[in-house]
Each structure stands twice: as structure tokens, then as C-alpha cells.
From TrEMBL:
Membrane topology, as annotated: Multi-pass membrane protein
Entries under InterPro entries matching the protein: ABC3_permease_C, Lipoprotein-release_system, LolCE_TM, MacB_PCD
An annotated GO cellular component: plasma membrane protein complex
Organism of origin: Seleniivibrio woodruffii
Highest classification ranks of the organism: Bacteria, Pseudomonadati, Deferribacterota, Deferribacteres, Deferribacterales
Record-given protein name: Lipoprotein-releasing system permease protein
Transmembrane portions of the chain: 20-46, 272-293, 327-350, 371-391
């Protein structure tokens, strides 16, 4: 142990003669602890909310969606499906037909977006089957007296239907007759109810089998587009570009990030803003470090003069007080990391704070613990503490030993 570190620790420990220094040191450590712990908890919770929202969005949506630019039906869709499936890191391709219809029941009527899909293919590209509250998503392809339909939770509640009940699908694009256009109508049996956690999807989305959709809308063997699943949703941007290059015009490949860019950009901006605001707690605590070193220098003028007279260099004297500040910074940051981790683990494993599930799509505060969060906050805290100790430590090195001993 070099003498700068030894003296710095001695100055921190010897507080009986000066209670003010002891108090300032304690406040400095406490401020850094609270700042670091608060930053870790808030950023981890925001990461948890973002991750939860991401999973909810991807529950009903694929990583990549492919349509024609002119939104016309795709005729040679089986060949296109094989081309997409041949792209590296593509794990599934699900053709779909999408349109808007009216659903009616004895209790109510509602406008919905209907998606005709192959249930087995759709379960490879989305996690919609995991959100089924009633019935099974695979039952869409089940044969019976009427074709099957899966409804969102809010939509089923608005229509007042449960699994096994019948609803009537009405298309505004009907046949032209002597009395004008006659809407096309058909009965469907509810095979299940899903809850994605997103009100918009739960209230306006319904699934039917792709063959039933082709028959109802009077389409030949065509599809509207493709939903694509990937091995890692973070690779969706690069994979969509590769698919776009392979299919070329008139196809249009969009990844889930670009389709929800405004939402996730807002979340990212909010997280950065919170990080900057909460970092001010550590900056405020660093002013206590400046005060503590300044008071210590004033209190130890005689000691500094003696060390200078014994041959200690200016850099050595400055190093004593730099280390003093860093010891406080390291101690506060370490305790803050432990406290922040403990709070995150408690929030993640125990239902300390209950949330209304119908508003936030979850019943507890979500927490996502990431190593990088701890690393970035630790580095920021140590850098701020180090910078705080630079000026007072340099001033201590400029102390004139002769003048200090003369006045003592």
C-alpha cells in the first residue's frame, strides 16, 4: 500500500476530532448510494416495461410482414413462401388474408379486422396461441357445422359471446342484385378467446382459417401477404432487408421495429431522459465530496505542510485527496449496486406493488435486470466522483508549507 492511499484511509477513519467531516462523509456516501440504487431500479423497471410491451406486440404480430406495394392479392404465393423460407434465420412463414368485416351477435355488432391464417403456420411466427384464454388456436382448422373463429377478449365481451357461441360475419362487399348490393353473411362458431394484453388488438382483431376466408370473400387461391418469424427478433431489420432484396418489387418487407418506430422511439427517449435526470442525484452527492475534501484540506493544513517539508511532491499530496474522494465514490457505488440489485430482485419475485391488469397488461411491476445497466451506472458514478475530487485535491497541493506552519 503506497502512503497516499494509507493517509487517505487514515483521514477517513479519524473523525473523532471533527464531527462535521464525519457527517459530510456519511452524507456523501449516502447520496451516491441512493443515486446509484435509484438509477438501477428505475432503468431496470423501464427496461421491464419496454420488454413486456415488446412481447405483447410480437404476440399478435410477426417479426416481419410482407405485402405487395399495390396491396393486390398474391397469386403465386406458394412459390413466394418457399423463397422467403429459404432466407437464413427465417423460422416460419405464414400466409394470411386480411380484411374488414362486421361481426354481429344477438347482443351487439362490432367492426373488426379479420385475419385468415393457417393455424399451424401462424403458431410458428407469432405467440398468439400462448394468449388464448378460452379454447385452442389450433381449433381454427377444425371441421364442423360452421367454420371456426377466434376473438379478442374485449371483442368477445362487446358481442357478449363465449366459446361455442355463434356469430354472424357480414361483408360490406356483397353481390349486386336488383335491389342494390346485398351484403354477404355467414355464421361462424367461436372456438376460442385470446388476450394479447393490447386493448387495440383485443377489441378489433379476429382470426379464421385461411380457406374459410378465401371462400367468404370470394377469392381464388390467393393471399394478402406473409407473416415471417425469425430466430431472433433483434435480427428482423437485417432479415427484412435481405428478403426485400430477394423478392424485389412489387413486394414490400417491413420489420416489427419500423412498424412500431414511434412507440419505441418515445420509450427510448423517456429512458434516456430519466437516466439524465436521476444522474443529477449522483452529481448533487458529488458536491458533498467536494465539500468534504475542502474541509479536510483546511483541517489538515499542518499535516500537509509537514509532508511537504519531508519531501512529498505536489502530485503525492494531490493523490491523497483524490484517493479519499474515490474511496467514498467506490464505497457508495458498491453499496448502491447491492441495494439496487436487492430492490430489483424483490420487485421481480414478490408482488410488492399491484398494478391494474386491465390498464397496464400486467399485475406487478416488471423488472429486467441487465448487466450493462449496472456497468454503465457504475462507470458514470465513479467518473462523476473522480471529477468532483480533482479541483480541491489540486488546491491542496498548492498549499505553501512555510506559510501553513507559520500560521499554525
Amino acid at each position: 500500500m503506497n502512503f497516499e492511499r494509507f493517509i487517505a484511509k487514515r483521514y477517513l477513519k479519524s473523525r473523532k476530532s471533527n464531527r462535521i467531516l464525519s457527517f459530510i462523509s456519511g452524507v456523501s456516501v449516502l447520496g451516491i448510494v441512493l443515486g446509484v440504487a435509484t438509477l438501477i431500479v428505475v432503468i431496470s423497471v423501464m427496461n421491464g416495461f419496454s420488454d413486456n410491451l415488446k412481447n405483447r406486440i410480437l404476440g399478435a404480430n410477426a417479426h416481419i410482414v410482407i405485402n405487395r406495394v399495390d396491396v393486390s392479392p398474391i397469386e403465386n404465393w406458394r412459390d413466394v413462401q418457399k423463397e422467403i423460407a429459404s432466407v437464413r434465420n427465417v423460422t416460419g412463414v405464414s400466409p394470411f388474408i386480411i380484411s374488414q368485416v362486421l361481426l354481429t351477435s344477438p347482443n351487439n355488432v362490432s367492426g373488426v379486422v379479420i385475419r385468415g391464417v393457417n393455424a399451424q403456420d401462424e403458431m410458428k411466427v407469432t405467440t398468439i396461441s400462448k394468449f388464448m384464454k378460452e379454447g385452442s388456436f389450433a381449433d381454427l382448422s377444425k371441421k364442423g357445422s360452421a367454420p371456426q373463429i377466434a376473438l379478442g377478449k374485449e371483442l368477445a365481451a362487446n358481442l357478449g359471446v363465449l366459446s361455442g357461441d355463434m356469430v354472424t360475419m357480414v361483408s360490406p362487399l356483397g353481390k349486386k342484385g336488383p335491389f342494390g348490393i346485398t351484403p354477404k353473411m355467414k355464421y361462424f362458431q367461436v372456438c376460442g378467446v385470446f388476450d394479447t394484453g393490447m386493448y387495440e388488438y383485443n377489441n378489433t382483431l379476429a382470426y379464421i382459417d385461411i380457406k374459410a376466408a378465401q371462400e367468404f370473400f370470394g377469392l381464388s387461391d390467393v393471399v394478402s401477404g406473409f407473416s415471417v418469424g425469425t430466430s431472433n427478433f433483434d435480427l428482423a431489420v437485417d432479415i427484412s432487408k435481405e428478403i426485400q432484396h430477394k423478392l424485389d418489387f412489387p413486394f414490400w418487407a417491413r420489420d416489427w421495429i419500423s412498424m412500431n418506430q414511434n412507440l419505441f422511439s418515445a420509450l427510448k427517449l423517456e429512458k434516456y431522459a430519466m437516466f439524465i435526470i436521476l444522474t443529477l442525484i449522483i452529481i448533487v452527492a458529488s458536491f458533498n465530496v467536494i465539500s468534504m475534501i475542502t474541509v479536510t484540506v483546511k483541517d489538515k493544513k499542518r499535516d500537509i505542510a509537514i509532508l511537504r517539508a519531508m519531501g512529498a511532491s505536489e502530485s503525492s499530496i494531490s493523490g491523497i485527496f483524490k484517493r479519499q474522494g474515490m474511496i467514498i465514490g467506490i464505497t457508495g457505488t458498491l453499496i448502491g449496486n447491492i441495494l439496487g440489485l436487492a430492490i430489483c430482485l424483490i420487485l421481480a419475485n414478490f408482488k410488492i406493488i399491484s398494478l391494474p391488469a386491465d390498464v397496464y397488461f400486467m399485475d406487478r411491476i416488471p423488472v429486467k435486470i441487465e448487466v450493462m445497466t449496472f456497468v454503465v451506472i457504475t462507470v458514470c458514478s465513479l467518473v462523476i466522483t473522480y471529477l468532483a475530487g480533482l479541483y480541491p485535491s489540486r488546491q491542496s497541493a498548492k498549499l505553501d508549507p512555510v506559510e501553513a506552519l507559520r500560521r499554525d
